[in-house]
Structures are given as C-alpha cells and as structure tokens.
Amino acid sequence: MQRTEYARTSVDDSDEDTIILDLSGAGQGNASGFSNNDHGTTGSAVQSFVPLVDLTISTTSSPTQLPTSPVYALINTIDIKRTSPLPSLEVAAKNIAGYEATSPFGKHTASAVETAQIVQSETSLNQACLRDLRTTNPHHDKDRIQNTNGGLLKDSYRWILDNEEFQQWQNNQSNCLLWIRGDPGKGKTMLLCGIIDELTRLFGDSANISFFFCQATDARINNATAVLRGLIYSLVKKHPSLLSHVKSQYDHAGKALFEDINAWNALSRIFTDILKDATLLSTYLIIDALDECTTGLSPLLDLIAQVSSAYPQRKWIVSSRNWPDIEERLDSTNTAPISLELNEASVSEAVSKFIQHKVHYLAKVKKYSDETRHTIRRHLSSNSQGTFLWVALVCQDLDRTSRMHAVRKLEAFPPGLNALYGRMIDQVCNSEDAESCKRILAVMSIVYRPIAFDELAYLVELPNDLSSDSEALSEIIAICGSFLTVREDTIIFVHQSAKEFLLRETQTGVLPGGIEAEHHTLFSRSLKAMSKTLRRDIFQVKFPGFPIEKVVPPSPNPLAAAQY
Q1: Among 9, 122, 134, 480, which has the highest number of CB atoms less than 10 A from its own CB?
Q2: Weakest-pLDDT range from 236-240, 331-335, 466-470
Q3: Is the pLDDT reported for residue 71 higher than 60?
Q4: What is the pLDDT of residues 301-315, one digit of tens each?
Q5: Nearest to 95 by CA among 131, 127, 56, 51
Q6: Average pLDDT rounded to a whole number, residues 133-157
Q7: Looking at residues 2-24, what average pLDDT do you find?
C-alpha cells in the first residue's frame, strides 16, 4: 500500500496534524476517503462527507495528484478545495462504493448504503442552494408575459431575424453585445420573447440560453441582484456542474449570500467565474427592460460591458428605452445597437400584422360585419403610430364594447399612447364607481409588487358591500382595464408606461395628496390589517421551534390578506 502524508497547519500554527491516505491503486483511478470513527463509519457519520475532485497532496518528494474520480473527505478534518467541477452524483456513488479509506481514526470501506446516504446528503444541499438562489423562474415569467399579451405572434418579430445588425451580431465575434432600444409600447419585450424561441429552436441543447425579464412594478425582479440570480439560476439548472461556483461560497454563508449587503459583489464574482468556466457551452445571455431595473442599474450596466468584452464567446442581448445613461455605459466597439425608431418600416409592418391578427379575432368573437371589420382595421392602422401597446389597449376596449357601438367607440380613441391614457382616465373618472377606481389605481401606483385580490380589500378603502365581494371587485378593476389586468388572482399594470402616466399626470386626481400621503395611508392600513389578522399560533402548529419552511399554510390562508 502506498502511503502519502498530508500536513495541515492548525489554526494557531503551533502544531501539525498528519493525515494518512490509502492511495492503493491510485494510478488505476480508485477513489479514497476518510472516516471519522475508529470503529468504522456508518449512518450519520457519513453525512459529514463532502465530495472533492483533483485532490493534490504534498509529499516529501513531489506533489501527488489523485485521479479525477471523486474523493470524499471529512469536513473539519481536512481543509481541501475543489479544483474542478464535480461529476454527477450517480458517477460519484459508483466510484466510491466499495473502496477502502484509511485515516488516523481507522480503516473503513464505503458500503452501498453509506454511498446512497452520501449522495442523498449532497443532493439535499444542492437543492437547498438552488431554492435559496431562486428569486423567480425566468421561464415562468416569459410564459406569463406572453399570456398577458395574448400570445406570441411570429409575424410580429420575424423581421428582426433578417435585420442586418442582428445577423452581424450573430455571426461576428467582435460584436458580442446586441442592444435593442425603443420607446414604450414598441414591442421590445415580445421581440425578445421571439428571439429566445428562435435561438432555442436553432440550437436546442447545444447552447445555453439564459434570460431575465425586469419589471419595475415587481420588487422581486426590478433590481440588479435579482437579474444575476435569475441568469445564474438558469445556467446551473441546465448544467448542475456549474453549481460548484455557487456552493463554494454558499456552504459558508447560506441564504445570506444572495440577500445581504454584499450580495451584488458575491454574485458578480460567481457570475464571472461561471462565464469563464471552460466546460460552459455556447451561451446567450438576454436581459429585457434594463430601464425597469430600478435598483443597481449602473453597476449592472458596468458588469455587462466588462464581461461582454472579456468573454466575447458569450453572446448578449439587452433591451431598454432610449435612455442616455444606458447608452453612455453600453456604447463601445463591441456593442451592436438596433434602434426600433430607425427601423420604422419593419416595425410598422410588424404592427400591421398584429392589427390584422387582433381584428380577425375581434370579428370572429363579436361577429362584426365586413364593413365594421374594415373600418376598425383602417382606423387602427392609421392611428397606431407603430405602437403595439396602443393597438392592444384599443382592441381590449373594443372587446368589452357591443358590436353595435364599436365604430362609434373606436372614433373616440386618439392616436398616441399618452393621449390614449388620458382618454382612458377620463372614462374612469366619469364612471359610476369613479372613487373606488381611483383608490385602487392610487394603491397600485405605489405598491412595490403586484397585489392579490385578498390583499386589495385591506389596502384599499372600499364601501363595505364591495370589500368582501370578489365579483364586484373584478367589475371595478375591469373599468380600470386600460391600466390594470388580472392574472391568477393577482392585479398588475398592463404596462410600465401606464403606471408612469398615473404618477406623472397629477391632474388625473388619482393621487390628490401626493405620493408621500398615499404611502402613509397604505402604511396605516397595513398596520390595521395586521392588528386585525395576527394572533398567536395562527397556523395551529402547536410546537414552538418547528421549522418555518416545513409549515403548510391552511386553506384558506388566514394571512393571505395581510401578506403585503
């Protein structure tokens, strides 16, 4: 048996411990480990093993490197770092089972049961790391956005695939950053949804496509830290070996790694390490609506500019409005900008296809005559000003209008997005439920995330006959339909520009006392909601100290209304 000594200096550097490794058959790819029990290791003792790869051990003659099969060592017994990605746990289990390990505590051979326990323990740690890393699932966000907008129409985005700047970005290594910019409502988000689908169809599993959708109205996904968490989450979900870059810090810090004051710096280093990982396949990184990243936008832009230059093999696509500060930070030789305003002809043609699709749907559902259908299509085409959102909002209103009044209602819609919002708020203010509508719009304008129906009744002062009537609430929100929409019992703005209009146009009467006064009112109502709702052991757990992550809320959830 070959014996190799590994010397480790203790914390106070006053003495040395000697660890004896059994390296028998090391040249044949066998794996070794340590035991922490001089009677042999079983059961819970094995739980403290951690996987290691490419272990280098100092000897009196020259460094000896173990083969790349996994080696298991005891935490706190020896301090060794991984130097290459860990293979799958199944491979690890096969490699370690049945091999003999010698330590100062005795000799032990790993059994199949112990190996399974090791694998189970490591799997649990990895799953916990992924759960804590996840702030959202970008794939679910993409599906939600597409559903909210009535689905993804291929004819509305296919023009970008033939665009000269897009093709140069795709085929030229020197242009690794594509910046799609345009005014609100021009279809940037749906354009990126289409690009994601096309790249997925084109490359399949041969490339990584990681994306993130920023939304200013949702605190979960409106900050730079959330962007990195989303991108990293997508990458490690597809390639579990990349999780080692996260685990190297997560094992020490836990969930705080992603949430404390140093989270941005830690995640930036992790993200950079992943990008330069030699095992990472061809990678496309896509971020939509940078202008809706309300916290940490500047460092995020700096990081994008830095890593896109340092690692040109990683392709980037970002989108935003025409903001000078974004242009200033992204303006470099490796950036390929696509302005939607400069591609007006292509965008207008895409909007025409969108109008055709929406009118066809309305004509089918509302049973329009040919004359009505042609009139609506002509009006939309001549007044849309190349704006998808304007068309979508008008068609949404027509969907709620009787076919007998469709043409007359259509003529009342002015061209331009801001003018349309002005018309919509006038309709709200002239409705029978104007006060309730304005209270709901006021709360929705200042909350930091979308709110659910249950929460709305506590946060908005409504007449008693409305606060507990979900159908009546739905009808009132429908009156605000040009500003708000409902998805899975959650109320959201139809677009960020709708919220900005309400905050900007003070004459609407939605925020008569100003934003600060509305925040104070919301705070007071939140305190009142908690005072009314909270009570000792509200979930009837009955056992103090029970892990909160294992608590299953009852149905209905008594805390649902007070969650905000």
Answers
A1: 480
A2: 466-470
A3: no
A4: 999 999 998 998 899
A5: 51
A6: 92
A7: 34
Please give the Cα distance from 80 to 98 (Å, whole number). 23
CA 19: distance to chain centroid? Answer: 45
| Residue 519 burial (CB count, 10 A) | 12
The β-bridge partners of 315 are: 284
User: Residue for token digits 């746990």?
Assistant: 89
Fold classification of 433-533 (topology level) = Arc Repressor Mutant, subunit A (1.10.10)
Q: Supply 275's token pair.
A: 């990008």
Give the phi and the psi of residue 86 in degrees, each rounded to 5. -75, 135
Q: Count other Cβ atoms within 10 Å, centred on residue 171.
A: 8
pLDDT tier for residue 111 given thresholds of 50, 70 and 90: low
Instruction: Extract the tokens encoding 226.
Output: 């959330």
- Calpha distance 51→313 (Å, rounded): 31
Please determine, for residue 410, whether its predicted confidence score (pLDDT) is greater than 70.
yes
**pLDDT for position 121:** 66
* One-letter amino acid for residue 446 of the chain: I
Alpha helices by DSSP H, 287-366:
297-310, 324-330, 344-366
Nearest CA to 242 out of 207, 270, 284 is that of 270
Residue 287, phi then psi, degrees to nearest 5: -125, 125
- 487 vs 76, higher pLDDT: 487
pLDDT tens for each residue of 24-44: 333 333 333 333 333 333 333
434-446 helix and 515-533 helix, angle to the nearest 10 degrees: 90
3-state helix, strand, coil in the chain (%, to 5): 55, 15, 35
Q: How confident is the model at residue 118 (pLDDT cuts 50, 70, 90)?
A: low
Report the C-alpha gap between 335 and 337 in whole angstroms.
6
Secondary structure of residue 109 in the 3-state scheme: strand
Determine which helix (DSSP H) or strand (DSSP E) holds 375, and give its type and residue range: helix 370-383
pLDDT at residue 268 is higher than 70: yes
Q: Which CATH number fits domain 138-333: 3.40.50.1370, 1.25.40.10, 3.40.50.300, 3.30.930.10?
A: 3.40.50.300
Host H or E run for residue 72:
strand 71-74
Specify the pTM: 0.73
Cis amide leading into 312 (omega within 30) = no
Distance, CA of 400 to chain centre? 33
Long-range pairs, 84-89, Cβ under 8 A, ≥24: 84/53, 84/54, 85/53, 85/241, 85/242, 85/244, 85/277, 85/279, 86/51, 86/53, 86/241, 86/244, 87/53, 87/241, 88/240, 89/119, 89/122, 89/123
228 — pLDDT class (breaks 50, 70, 90): very high
Domain ranges (residues) in the chain: 138-333, 346-415, 433-533
